Recover the amino acids of this structure.
């Protein structure tokens, strides 16, 4: 049994919007074992970024913690005094954003931006910072002379490597990567993911990898948590969850994506759109789109249940998972939903 | 390199605009009603004397020939002789230009320093009471007629409180060894204070509002959020990242403001009897000293056009996305 | 066919008038802009009812019952609301009548600048090619002309008149409006409904006026509302420098009169402060209204 580096319990984050309060994350729970890559996967808008950003406690001005905990090495990040939280930032918890283009300051050379964290947050002198910057560039496969270039002079893939180098600068224990390869083409995606995997194994890092792409999860993750409408609906190790999903939403997601290694079955989208988080449906939030929904689903929210080992899912029909999987593999099952939803 | 080509293109545009402005001016001065020499010619002059004078200024030739001579003279920096001072216009302008530049630059430097700092601060403290007070005040300063502001300041600080002299650059009769000696003197500074204050109050609004809105925009950028996620100190995030980026267009606007201010100086120099290019233009036009008026106008236009060009180039230099393309 | 394809905003209801009215999109949602509009209304009412509001003939030289000059009266003294000038004219009445020239100059200049700028921008942006090239070179030249000196020289040659300012603005200040509208048209041109109209064979003129113009109208009003202030400020400057029409009562000529009559050294604040405040009020109103339009046009600024 490995140690758990991050234990998120019933986390809720709300945004203040014109129409009221919207809980973008609403009772999400997730455990991240140390030294693994844990995928956080779900459709766009299900609250992945909100959750990831909440862990840094740098959130949009209208966001508010609405409940829950996030225990990092036993300490609750959500209630840590700001000064202590700031000590953890980047030294312990680093972040790789989706678009390195926008997250690197356009007016400074990348070397300067590396030095900024090495000196300012790592306490190195300039000479050691220089050596470390070169070392980091070596680690992510960029020539050290490019430290003198500006962000816009790099290609998309290279910039993402720069972002990874930046994240690793101070040797953090946890790296949160929010859609780190989404903006890239498939070949570059693979290169970056290979790089990430290699570094993670070599350094024994714990990584939370946020993505909407289940094939990325299949390619690099050890564990996965599936998010839907602000909640984690299924979690477990990647092999189990992807080959024997217990939640119909996961089954649908697996149908909807091609595999990164090229093997592809028939792609079937999940019909409809995620619910309005201002007024989520009662009961199971997936019920309006679920081909297996029964009356109980619409009345009562399904509890998270253990299926075996670390495999968890929140569905009333977990017991029938085997049969549902067989039905979910058929295109007609989902196509039938198209009319209901529309 | 495309950068060089671009600069060459902009230079060609500058020459074209200057030529066009010079031509428009020529046409205005020659085609407008009235004899351009009216102010020069004494009623006692005989027909013969008048004819000789016309010939001396080349006014007896066909228009196109006059135009070519005018352009050729311009290229040589020959702006003709002032009717009033009986000295080359060019020399007269060169005497006055430093006074105008001192006034312009000192007021703009103060205005930009103030505007940038306050604008950045307002963006930082957005949505607060400060914003609701400062912004209407700033809009009001932008809406003031500059000369009126000068009048009010003069009435209060000079005529009423007697803190500052009422006009000019030096006390009557004071002489200095050189321009530099004059500019470094206390007297000069006390004469400079009110006109500079007037222009600075008027000019700070642009950089202030520009800085504020740029800051608000930049603060929404991912790299600012990332700087916070990196745990960088707040001042670093605000000053070195947000403000540094927001400053780019503000710096560019400085060059444009110089050109704008030079034309606006016409009124403020008049209020404060400041011996600069703007007041000279007004006096020359009033006195029908056309060569001088024409020369002062062209000089002001040249500053405007050059400053617009510098603004363009400055952006390229300051923004690595352009300079390191 | 083009009717059926028409998907441009506001196409569904009403003729040209309705289209224009909706194109105006008065910024009534923004309290500051509403405040600006209220200043405009107040100012227009003053100009219209100047005869009723004024207590004296603004140009009349006033005497006391015993035939002394009623000069340099302080506000309220002898019943002169804002006092009198050093020549014995009633300042309040001048101020009231000054709103007439301000209104006249402001509105005509705004209309000229907005109209010329909009036309230039529309034509340059829509037709492109050499038309665009020529118009934009003209704009370059206009940007090279120092505006105030230009007005001075122009005023020196023409008969003194408040219309010189309007003429100069029409000749030079269309440049900003023209450039901005051109770039807006360039982006609108590529929008789907314009493409659709073109494919369906609408004529150029029809596309420009039915589909593009209504969308840039708020932009024209934005620049128009700024031009009102500009015109009033410029007229004041020109009058102050002595190139205005001495027979017209304007806030600018009032200030010139005060300056030339040593009102500064006699500290006659009641003479030269009110016209300045009136100018500020009207110009600020223009700023507020234009900001209102900006928020309609570029909503992200509001956030
Ligand atoms: N600053 C914000 N204010 C209001 N709503 C927001 C804000 N940021 C995100 N949201 C909303 O919260 C929901 C979750 O967003 P996000 O966490 O970005 O999802 P994901 O990363 O999974 O795509 C979305 O509906 C999104 O529109
Ligand atoms: S609880 Fe019901 S509605 Fe929800 S996923 Fe399971 S079967 Fe579908
Ligand atoms: Mg996201």
């Amino acid at each position: 049994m490995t140690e758990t580096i991050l234990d998120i319990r019933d986390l809720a984050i709300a945004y203040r919007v014109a129409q009221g309060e919207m809980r973008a994350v609403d009772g999400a729970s997730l455990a991240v074992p140390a030294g693994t890559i844990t995928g956080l996967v779900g459709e766009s808008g299900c609250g992945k970024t909100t959750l990831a950003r909440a862990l840094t406690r740098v959130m949009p001005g209208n966001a508010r913690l609405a409940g829950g905990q996030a225990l990092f090495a036993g300490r609750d990040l959500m209630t840590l005094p700001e000064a202590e939280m700031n000590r953890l930032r980047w030294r312990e918890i680093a972040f790789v954003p989706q678009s390195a283009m926008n997250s690197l300051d356009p007016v400074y050379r990348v070397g300067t931006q590396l030095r900024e964290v090495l000196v300012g947050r790592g306490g190195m002198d300039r000479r050691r910072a220089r050596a470390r910057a070169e070392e980091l560039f070596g680690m992510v496969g960029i020539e050290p002379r490019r430290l003198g270039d500006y962000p816009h002079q790099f290609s998309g893939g290279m910039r993402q490597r720069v972002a990874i180098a930046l994240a690793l600068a101070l040797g953090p224990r946890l790296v949160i990567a929010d859609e780190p390869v989404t903006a890239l083409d498939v070949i570059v995606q693979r290169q970056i993911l290979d790089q990430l995997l290699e570094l993670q194994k070599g350094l024994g890092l714990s990584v939370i990898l946020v993505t909407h792409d289940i094939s990325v999860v299949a390619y690099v993750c050890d564990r996965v948590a599936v998010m839907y409408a602000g909640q984690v609906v299924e979690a477990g190790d990647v092999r189990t969850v992807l080959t024997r999903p217990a939640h119909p939403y996961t089954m649908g997601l697996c149908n909807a994506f091609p595999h990164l290694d090229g093997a592809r079955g028939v792609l079937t989208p999940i019909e409809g759109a995620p619910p309005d988080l201002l007024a989520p449906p009662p009961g199971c939030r997936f019920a309006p789109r679920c081909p297996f929904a029964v009356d109980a689903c619409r009345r009562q929210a399904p509890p998270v249940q253990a299926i075996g080992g670390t495999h968890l899912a929140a569905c009333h029909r977990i017991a029938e998972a085997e049969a549902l999987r067989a039905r979910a593999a058929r295109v007609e099952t989902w196509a039938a939903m198209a009319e209901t939803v529309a | 390199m495309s950068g060089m080509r671009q600069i060459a293109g902009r230079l060609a545009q500058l020459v074209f605009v200057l030529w066009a402005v010079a031509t428009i001016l020529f046409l205005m001065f020659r085609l407008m009603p009235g004899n351009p020499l009216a102010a020069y010619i004494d009623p006692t002059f005989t027909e013969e004397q008048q004819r000789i004078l016309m010939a001396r200024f080349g006014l007896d030739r066909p228009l196109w020939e006059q135009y070519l001579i005018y352009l050729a003279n311009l290229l040589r920096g020959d702006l003709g002789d002032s009717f009033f001072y009986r000295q080359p216009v060019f020399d007269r302008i060169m005497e006055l230009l430093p006074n105008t530049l001192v006034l312009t630059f000192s007021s703009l430097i103060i205005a930009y320093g103030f505007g940038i700092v306050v604008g950045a601060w307002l963006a930082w403290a957005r949505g607060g009471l400060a914003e609701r007070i400062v912004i209407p005040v700033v809009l009001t300063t932008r809406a003031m007629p500059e000369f009126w502001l000068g009048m009010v300041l003069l009435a209060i600080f000079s005529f009423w409180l007697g803190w500052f002299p009422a006009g000019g650059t030096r006390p009557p009769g004071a002489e200095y060894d050189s321009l530099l000696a004059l500019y470094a003197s206390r007297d000069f500074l006390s004469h400079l204070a009110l006109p500079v204050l007037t222009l600075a109050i008027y000019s700070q609004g642009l950089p202030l509002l520009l800085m504020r809105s740029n800051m608000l925009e930049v603060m929404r950028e991912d790299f600012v959020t990332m700087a916070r996620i990196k745990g960088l100190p707040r001042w670093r995030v605000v000053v070195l990242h947000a403000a540094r980026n927001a400053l780019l267009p503000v710096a560019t606007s400085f060059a444009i403001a110089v050109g704008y201010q030079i034309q606006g100086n016409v009124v403020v120099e008049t209020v404060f009897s400041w011996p600069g290019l703007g007041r000279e233009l007004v006096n020359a036009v009033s006195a029908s000293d056309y060569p001088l008026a024409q020369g002062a106008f062209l000089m002001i236009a040249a500053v405007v056009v050059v400053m617009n060009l510098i603004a363009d180039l400055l952006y390229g230099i300051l923004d690595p996305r352009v300079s390191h393309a | 066919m083009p009717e059926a394809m028409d998907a441009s905003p506001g196409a569904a209801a009403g003729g040209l008038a309705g289209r224009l009215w909706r194109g105006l999109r008065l910024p009534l949602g923004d309290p500051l802009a509403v405040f600006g509009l209220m200043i405009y209304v107040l100012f227009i009412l003053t100009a219209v009812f100047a005869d009723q509001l004024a207590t004296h003939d603004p140009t009349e030289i006033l005497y006391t019952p015993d035939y002394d000059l009623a000069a340099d009266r302080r506000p309220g003294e002898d019943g002169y609301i804002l006092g009198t000038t050093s020549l014995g004219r009633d300042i309040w009445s001048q101020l009231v009548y000054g709103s007439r020239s301000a209104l006249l100059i402001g509105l005509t200049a705004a209309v000229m600048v907005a109209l010329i700028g909009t036309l230039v921008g529309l034509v340059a942006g829509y037709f492109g090619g050499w038309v665009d090239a020529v118009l934009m070179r003209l704009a370059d030249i206009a940007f090279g002309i120092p505006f105030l000196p230009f007005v001075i020289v122009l005023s020196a040659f023409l008969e003194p008149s408040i219309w010189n300012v309007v003429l100069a603005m029409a000749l030079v200040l269309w440049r900003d409006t023209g450039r901005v509208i051109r770039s807006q048209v360039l982006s609108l041109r590529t929008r789907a409904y314009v493409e659709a109209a073109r494919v369906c064979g609408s004529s150029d003129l029809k596309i420009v006026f039915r589909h593009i113009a209504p969308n840039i109208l708020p932009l024209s009003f934005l620049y128009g509302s700024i031009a009102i202030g500009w015109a009033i400020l410029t007229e004041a400057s020109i009058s102050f420098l002595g190139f205005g029409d001495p027979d017209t009562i304007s806030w600018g000529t009032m200030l010139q009169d005060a300056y030339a009559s040593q009102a500064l050294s006699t500290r006659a604040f009641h003479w030269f402060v009110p016209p300045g405040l009136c100018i500020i009020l009207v110009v600020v109103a223009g700023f507020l209204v234009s900001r209102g339009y900006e928020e309609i046009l570029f909503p992200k600024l509001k956030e």
